[in-house]
Each structure stands twice: as C-alpha cells, then as structure tokens.
Amino acid sequence: MHAVSDAASCPLNWRLFLPQEWADDAVRRRRTGVPEDVGHREKWRLALDALDALDALDALDVLDEPAGWGLVPPVVVADAGYGQNADFRAGLAEREIRYVVGICSDITVQPHEATPSTPAWSGSGRRPVPR
Fold first, then answer.
1. Domain spans of the chain, in order of start
2. Running along the chain, 131 residues long, what does each successive block of 10 average in pLDDT?
C-alpha cells in the first residue's frame, strides 16, 4: 500500500503473501522461519487488511505495534489482479472507498441500475442470450 501524488510515492503498509504451497510445506516453513500461526491468505484479503489497519486508530498489526493512522484513501488504484476479484471490489464498496481498478476484457461491466434483457428469438439460429 502506497500513498502517491504527482511527484512521489511512499509505502505506508504491506503484508507478506504466503502462497498456499508454502503454507502446506512444514519443511520449507521451518527452513525460512515462517511462524506456525502464519498461514495463507489471499492477496485481495491482505490488501483489505492493510486498508483496515491504516484506518483503525487502535488497531495492532502482526508486530503488536500501533498500525492505524486514521487514514482513509480518497481512492484506491489497483491492477487487474485485484480488479477482477468481485470480493475485493465489494470490500472496497462496503468500506465506502472509491476505486479505479484494472480489469480484463472478459469481464462484463454495467451500470448498477442495468437490467439484463434477452432479445426475442426469431426461430432460427442460436437462441439469444441476456445482455
């Protein structure tokens, strides 16, 4: 998580991502010193956790140090790795945080009030699908 402006970028908060295969590998965990109580957590959840820690004045992070600064970003910008995830976008919406995220061309985007409709089938060719 970085605070950015036209002139600078400053890291504010970060989380270590532990892939599932590392979380399940006791030998690898022991060799690298990964604590027993640390497990796999999806990247989008880690991002929401980091946002929550920035906002919560009394929050404690994994090092038991004060984490929250009472900061709420005016907008979150993320790449398609996060933007494709509906749960991540919903988490931002629940927190009332505006966002601009990348998406891939296979995702459908519609205004909130849009209602899918299916054109009438002419009787020949493929049946139409909702759009």
1. 2-101
2. 90 89 94 92 94 69 55 90 95 95 87 87 90 76
